[in-house]
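Quiz preparation item.
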């Protein structure tokens, strides 16, 4: 599994997009009561091998789920490391 975006959702939960290393599936999980709960799992779009804009390789259902939940901006690498190191505490 590879982690994609990490963000705070409208319910103040940490969420992450992810995909399988085989490229066959993608999903979204959110943290509740100290555990990750998968909220969406979909088949990944076919990889054409062409250069694409960031996010273009995400399934439309995954993009819609992120758009419906995200509050603010996705974390950059530095902020994500800090949140993980804090035990997933809210900012």
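Solution:
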């Amino acid at each position: 599994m590879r982690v994609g975006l990490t963000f705070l959702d409208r319910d103040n939960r940490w969420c992450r997009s992810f995909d399988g290393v085989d490229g066959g599936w993608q999903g979204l999980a959110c943290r509740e009561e100290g555990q990750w709960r998968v909220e969406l799992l979909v088949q990944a779009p076919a990889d054409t091998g062409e250069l694409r804009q960031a996010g273009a390789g995400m399934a439309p259902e995954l993009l819609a789920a992120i758009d419906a939940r995200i509050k603010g901006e996705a974390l950059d690498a530095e902020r994500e490391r800090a949140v993980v190191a804090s035990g997933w505490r809210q900012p």
